[in-house]
Amino acid sequence: MTTLPFGRALCAMVTPFTQDGSLDLDGAAVLAGRLIAGGCDGLVLNGTTGESPTTSDAEKSALVRAVRAAVGDGPSLLAGVGTADTAHTSALARQAERAGADGLLVASPYHSRPPQDALEEHFRAVADATGLPVMLYDIPGRTGVRIETPTMLRLAEHPRVVALKDCAYDLLGTQKLLAETELAVYTGCDEYVLSSYAIGCAGYVGTVANVVPAHFRAVVDAFDAGDTARAARLQRAAVPLIEAMMSAGLPGTVTAKALLAALALPAGPVRAPLRAASAEVTADLRERYAALSGA
């Protein structure tokens, strides 16, 4: 992979809140700094893990500005701007550009489930709204609509559509995009970090990286150094924590915030309709985190 528009190791950062539920910009600055120090090349703000459905437009802008001030100009900052409304998404894109984002993460419109031609027109309109590069976000399990491979192939011809966050669990489609386009494909599935990287993806946008950023960076570093056996060991070692955080019936936002709080790191509560993890879940997360950290 020669084109890395946003680096290799990205974290889908949680949005810290204070105990009364308001935006915690100081906490966001601390958490962002820890993630960059842990090896992240960039951060995705206001995404699914960042609870974008329950943060206001003003909060989204304030978060980008605060994190940009905290980490400086080096790391990539992508702002999630996807909504169910093309006009609103385009307005959020322009707002993110003014706030200092380096790129946009744009998910498919949810609920309305537009057909592929309308979906393509939506993405083109958002890409035309600013001068920022765009990472499309294919996560049909949440949006209800897939960005089908022929649609992605056409969108890849747009000069500002440069990347894809791939959460579609379609390895054949992923390889087709890698073979036929110059898109930088980033897996959004923590269990696929190594396998996706090995077939030529640019890197990852991880949720579990909120708590173990250095571990996932070590996976891709080992692979780049030619130590594929070590890369495989590191990926397998993360499986118990990945499973607990991403496949145990709770959203990754909930488990990430529970574990961050247990480690005395900025997180705060989740906003309704999400609910906090139980004490039992949190204890299990801590145990798996400790096992991985000591591996």
Automatic annotation (TrEMBL):
Pfam families: DHDPS. The active site is at Y137, K165. Keywords: Amino-acid biosynthesis, Cytoplasm, Diaminopimelate biosynthesis, Lyase, Lysine biosynthesis, Schiff base. PROSITE patterns: DHDPS_1 (PS00665), DHDPS_2 (PS00666). GO terms for molecular function: 4-hydroxy-tetrahydrodipicolinate synthase activity. The record marks T48 as: Part of a proton relay during catalysis. Homotetramer; dimer of dimers. Belongs to the DapA family. This is 4-hydroxy-tetrahydrodipicolinate synthase. It comes from Streptomyces chilikensis.
